[in-house]
Design brief:
The protein is built from 18 helices and 14 strands. With 429 residues, it is α/β, with parallel strands linked by helices. Helix 2 crosses helix 3 and helix 10 packs across helix 11. The chain is globular.
Length: 429
């Protein structure tokens, strides 16, 4: 983990370094993904089953691709009851938070008989992708499904890769059942994204695909965008901690490692105004690394994308945080709320020593599917708005239109659209 003084030069170097992790830089896989998508689009189930056999070493057919109720009940039997209860509690918190995001249709009627409004309609069918194997995270199931349920989506399907034995991770199935998924299919990778985007004999076409995955899944989502909507092209995880001399070094170190353990491309950055804190955090990190299970991954992550930046002032630290636009931003300062008011770009903001990033990952309620790789400058966390459509509503009476028809006709003439002009004009001949 590099400790450097924060200057304009080091900031530019850091930003360039972080951008190397973007999925947009993995073009060498695009042709492979495009071929998979085309084969599933044209070959349907047959192609999908072939890829499942090739990549997941599992033979499926139309009778076995869908997860049965018996398999879900079996999954409950494999789970610790205490963990099932924690999933239920987390689901309740996530549901309560997202219910506050619900929008209603509105209409504004004027005395002249004109009516303008906005009609809110949920999408009809959402598709959620859930990774399998070691990357199976029940928390991501909750975060993808519950906003869609709250939005009023009529049908939610889920695809997730099976093991070689044809089974799906029990935690994934239990979380999906608690969250309210309607149907679960055993399909993974780019081929599952293609199946949801275009439909096969077994898997229906959806209107939107959300959910994390490996680089092949990310590129597949990028490729099918336009045929369906997607949530985002997710990059590696990242955390940025802004801290001053009041922060507890042990907490800071623990929080940086909580992201570094995701994978070797994960980014963990500390920006601090205290040289003393920086040195103490380095020491604490080494002590933690000796005891935590994913030491090799964390060391590679910190070696590649771990930074401790020494800032001259809190203003410099804040400016750099806004430039990085991190997925997760922790503020561990004397007055974190004051610092928060100056933050413009961040996926999720955690304030104070007892609001560490895993609180948001699992339990608090706000969504943990967040913009990465600097996209927090223009993207937001996944939420209810991602699963609705907005339609404008316009209704004018004859009297209301008569008052403005000359203005509309003039506008149309100036744009050279005489049929537009005529459409208004004929009503007042």
């Amino acid at each position: 983990m590099r400790t450097v003084k924060l200057t304009e030069e080091t900031r530019k170097g850091l930003l360039q370094d972080l951008l190397k992790r973007s999925p947009n830089n993995y073009g060498k896989y695009e042709s492979v993904v495009a071929q998979i998508i085309e084969n599933v689009r044209t070959g349907g189930d047959q192609a999908l089953f072939g890829y499942t056999k090739e990549f997941d070493h599992c033979e499926l057919d139309a009778d076995t691709i869908q997860v049965t109720r018996e398999e879900i009940e079996e999954a409950y039997g494999k789970m610790e009851p205490d963990f099932v209860e924690v999933i239920r509690k987390a689901a309740a918190n996530i549901r309560a938070f997202h219910q506050k995001q619900v929008r209603n249709s509105w209409f504004d009627v004027q005395p002249d008989g004109s009516l303008l409004g906005q009609k809110i309609t949920p999408i009809e069918r959402a598709g959620v992708y859930v990774p399998g194997g070691k990357a199976a995270y029940p928390s991501s199931v909750l975060m993808n499904v519950i906003p869609a349920k709250v939005a009023g989506v009529s049908e939610i399907i889920m695809t997730t890769p099976p093991g070689a034995d044809g089974k799906v991770n029990p935690g994934t199935l239990v979380a999906a059942d608690i969250a309210g998924v309607d149907t679960i299919y055993k399909a993974g990778g780019a081929q599952a994204i293609a199946a949801m985007a275009f439909g096969t004999e077994s898997i229906p076409k959806v209107d939107k695909i959300s959910g994390p995955g490996n680089i092949f899944v990310a590129l597949a989502k990028k490729a099918v965008y336009g045929h369906v909507s997607i949530d985002s092209i997710a990059g590696p995880s990242e955390v940025l901690v802004i801290a001053d001399e009041s922060a507890t070094p042990r907490y800071v170190a623990a929080d940086l490692l909580s992201q570094a353990e995701h994978d070797e491309l994960a980014s963990a950055i500390l920006i601090t105004t205290s040289v003393t804190l920086a040195k103490q955090v380095e020491t604490e990190i080494e002590e933690f690394l000796a005891t935590l299970s994913r030491e090799e991954i964390m060391r590679k992550s910190l070696d590649n994308y771990g930074y401790i930046l020494i800032a001259d002032s809190m203003e410099d630290a804040i400016d750099t945080a806004n430039a990085i636009a991190s997925e997760h931003l922790e503020i561990l300062t004397k007055n974190p709320f004051e610092v928060m008011t100056k933050i413009k770009n961040a996926g999720a903001i955690f304030l104070g020593e007892y609001s560490s990033e895993p609180l948001g990952d699992y339990f608090a309620g706000p969504n943990h599917i967040l913009p990465t790789n600097g996209t927090a400058r223009f993207f937001s966390p996944l939420g209810v708005d991602d699963f609705i459509k907005k339609s404008s509503v316009i209704s004018y009476s004859k009297e209301a239109l008569e008052a403005v028809h000359n203005d509309i006709e003039l506008f149309a003439r100036k744009e050279g659209l005489t049929a537009h002009e005529n459409s208004i004009k004929v009503r007042f001949e």
